[in-house]
From TrEMBL, chains A, B, C:
<dbReference type="Pfam" id="PF01865">
    <property type="entry name" value="PhoU_div"/>
</dbReference>
<protein>
    <submittedName>
        <fullName>Phosphate transport regulator</fullName>
    </submittedName>
</protein>
<dbReference type="InterPro" id="IPR052912">
    <property type="entry name" value="UPF0111_domain"/>
</dbReference>
<comment type="similarity">
    <text>Belongs to the UPF0111 family.</text>
</comment>
<dbReference type="InterPro" id="IPR038078">
    <property type="entry name" value="PhoU-like_sf"/>
</dbReference>
<dbReference type="InterPro" id="IPR018445">
    <property type="entry name" value="Put_Phosphate_transp_reg"/>
</dbReference>
Length: 208, 208, 208
């Protein structure tokens, strides 16, 4: 086969793909948590593990970025992409941890719905990042449009779920606070997915 | 009159002016909402329409930016300006929607006061953006200083209104939560106005 | 000794050192506030004074940055460093003000603990900024790692303190809201310390 040099960019690309896969892994663990809520501790640990690995990957990408002169994309795009991907995992872990710490008895149906949307967003992001890192920009915009749609859906569900919760009357106000905080973290996770999509769209437009 | 080429920058400029006018339109619809609260649904739809148009404009500006090599201002300034303008409308719509969804009986006098400050900020922003897009940087700083003052006033009103609400005692805690959330969204809208002003100030300083 | 020109960069550097010292002063005043809570008004005024001076310094640094072509570090790093330093003071003042406005009877032991961590973070930041402004990058990473550790500790304390507060039962829900908001502001202050550390780490890596 002969000798082949792996160019710097290729390593960079594979680091990105790993970060995207790890993000998806964390979101899938959150999905397992809400659908197997009798094992909430176990799945919370899985989300935590993904979040921890994400921290390490983020740190490595940023460190590499600061020491690399030639990069495939604009420096600020890489920075935004990496830190927003990391934010998704931080928020997923924030949700998982709050289910445990706040002694939530059962996730609400709307929480499960939003996490399903997050799972779909994570898959779209992973595919779009894989294409970007192979310099195939053709269908990236479609993935990004889909992620924007999923975020809009999540936003609507959260807003109405929180309103219903508050309008219900007779609920323990502290319980309302706990659930509201979990909803808001889920919404922010969907927002960060959209932020990553916006960066990817920018990268695709600049390269087209 | 003869034939005249419209340079790329001029189109860019007019897109900015439109986005600023649309932002002001959304803030004015929010003002109509609180002063004609019996027609809350109608004015909420008007805020929503402005927010929706703002999304389209933002998307067009960013897409144009990513495909344009020469731009009038620094690329990152345009990006910040556009996305922060859009945030103001998102927050105005968030407030309008919560008045409806949370079944608020009546906006508080302090909410009307803060929205009056937002109306004044929006007018200052629209004027400053119009000057910047005509490359007349002379009085931009004055507009920015005024927007900073308006934000400080809004911040003070919000902080004291929330404290009074919480210190009152005997209120339904969930009702406190609802009003507090609306106050916090109004404060964030004022913050985003200040963010836009800071970008404009930067543009003016770089060009002077 | 003879005549010596002070280069532009040196002025820039000393402005940074002053901003870092002023930030530490604000955090120390917040520490005095919680340990001398019978003089809460007096120490709140001290935090406010630091916040006010910080605003002036931030404005001066940004204005100088916009008019300076050659700067010691990347323009966007200076911008991020300055505005995040300012955020720490805004949040410290937000906490001090809320102790007064929300008529808090006594800070909780966990609040004192977190403020102790903030004091340590502020000292690390001040040292790291002093080194960076003397172009001595050798041990900056160590300071940054320590600030990250301190943020992780603060995050853990806040999350458990808020959970304990909400799980306690029988508490006045509005009182829970007040304390929760103070905890969340303290956590955000620790987050902003970490943000500053991340920028410093970037600067150090780029220069090594």
């Amino acid at each position: 086969m002969g000798f082949r040099l792996i160019p710097k960019e290729e390593k960079f690309f594979s680091m990105f793909e790993q970060a995207a896969q790890n993000m998806e892994r964390g979101v899938l663990a959150l999905k397992s948590l809400v659908t197997n809520f009798d094992q909430v501790q176990r799945y919370a640990s899985e989300v935590k593990a993904a979040e921890h690995d994400g921290d390490t990957q983020t740190h490595e990408i940023i460190a590499k970025l600061d020491k690399t002169f030639v990069t495939p994309f604009d420096r600020e795009d890489i920075h935004a992409l990496t830190s927003k991907l990391d934010d998704i995992l931080d928020l997923a872990w924030g949700v998982a941890d709050r289910f445990v710490l706040y002694q939530i008895e059962q996730p609400t149906p709307q929480m499960v719905e939003i996490i399903d949307l997050l799972v779909r967003s994570a898959a779209e992001l992973r595919k779009a990042i894989s294409k970007a890192t192979h310099l195939k920009y053709d269908n990236i915009i479609e993935h990004c449009v889909e992620i924007n749609n999923l975020e809009n859906q999540a936003d609507q569900i959260v807003r109405h779920a929180v309103a219903d919760l508050m309008n219900a009357g007779g609920k323990d106000p502290v319980e309302v606070m706990k659930l509201k905080e979990i909803y808001e973290h889920l919404e922010r996770a969907a927002d960060r997915c959209e932020d990553v999509a916006n960066v990817l769209e920018s990268i695709a437009l600049k390269s087209s």
